[in-house]
Amino acid sequence: MRHAWPLWRRVELVAATMVALIVAVSAQAQEPLKIRIGWAQMPGHMIPVLYSKPEILKHYGKSYTVEPILFRGSTPQLTAMAAREIDMGAFAPLALALAVQKAHLDVKAVADILQDGLPDYHSDSFFVRVDSGIRSIADLKGKRIGTNAIGSAIDTAMRVMFKEHGPLEARDFTLIEASFPNIPIMLEEGKIDMGPVLQPFHEQLLKTGRYQVLFSARDALGPVQFVFLAARTEFLEQNRAALYDFFEDHVRAMRWFNDPANHDEAVKIIAAFTKQKPEDLQYVFTKGDYFRDPYLVPNVTGIQSMADACVTAGLISDKLQVAPNYVDMSFVAEARRRIEADRH
User: End of a domain among 186, 221, 256?
Assistant: First the structure.
């Protein structure tokens, strides 16, 4: 025969269970926010190495942590964000337009990653072999063309150039998707006839004398916000306090890497991650690199002009009005306020 536990024992058991639950909930509440961030190329996007200097980060591991996730381009990140597999992504303006117009997501641009086409700064370029006979857009008809991902920032620049200076339609060439590091190899092996070449391969290929630039992103678009950090509005609002801390550290880290006084160490960190020689990365954070805003304020005009270019290129049919609904600069503004307050 089973005997019922005395009342005092049952009360004691219930109390112990409640204490355990309270402790568990409290511990969970104190766990840092894990931020999953997409990125597509280094050192342009910088996301995988920004948190490698704990001594300049005030909040990492306390209120937040970061998990960088590699993608081929910005449009695959849009798919991941729609599936809630990432919290932030390195978006091109087309990805923002598609997120709003096709995926019906409430997404906002929150921080600068890199801008292209500004005077005196590097602009991504499209290379051909000198012996290819390709001298104009028209010469690309029937050729094989490399791109990192359909709808990426550099892919958008290429399509605008084709539309306005060809015209060259999609049926006129064969498009081959490949990661950025593989583009120079595919050019060398004759697997593609033209492709976008980023730094540091840009200078390396030119020095061989076997390659030349057919056109640059600047030629196609002028100065634009090429890539920016984007996030769902829901994620931003639900985690605002932790994200204020994250963006403070994010901006601090980028300012540290951009500081000429830290150039040698910054190059060593990037070289270790990318497995490249430091001497091949001396261009980073100089005029040979992309322009980045000192406080990572996104260039809203540059996002808008590139979103408009997506319509020109036929990548989207409807114009996207970027501001004010799809931009939130409050996080980088708070980061700047905190950083400047520390100076006084």
Answer: 221
| Bridge partner residues of 126 (DSSP) | 196, 215
SS3 content of the chain, % helix, strand, coil (to 5): 45, 20, 35
Please give the Cα distance from 151 to 98 (Å, whole number).
9
Give per-residue pLDDT as tens, 104-157. 999 999 999 999 999 999 999 999 999 999 999 999 999 999 999 888 889 989
Residues 242 and 96 in one domain: yes
Q: What is the structure's pLDDT at 12?
A: 57
Domain stop point among 221, 252, 268: 221
Q: Buried b / exposed e across 243-279, counting CB within 10 Å, b at 16+?
A: bbbbbbbbbbbbbbbbeeebeeebbebbbeebebeee
pLDDT value for 23: 39
Give the structural domain span for 135: 125-221
24, part of any domain: no
Residue 123: how many other CB atoms lie within 10 Å: 25
pLDDT over 60 at 43, yes or no = yes
Kindly state whether residues 112 and 227 are assigned to the same domain.
yes
Helices (H), the chain: 7-30, 74-82, 93-101, 153-165, 182-188, 201-208, 217-221, 233-238, 240-258, 263-274, 300-312, 330-342
Our CA dihedral for 311, 161, 219, 118, rounded to 10 degrees, sits at 30
User: DSSP states of 293-341 as a string?
Assistant: -TT----HHHHHHHHHHHHHTTS-SS----TTTTB--HHHHHHHHHHHH
140 with 68, same domain?
no
pLDDT tens digit string along 262-306? 999 999 999 999 999 999 999 999 999 999 999 999 999 999 999
For every residue of 266-277, DSSP letters joined together read HHHHHHHHHT--
**Would you say the pTM of this structure is higher than 0.70?**
yes
Given the structure tokens 């939130």, which residue do they identify? Answer: 328
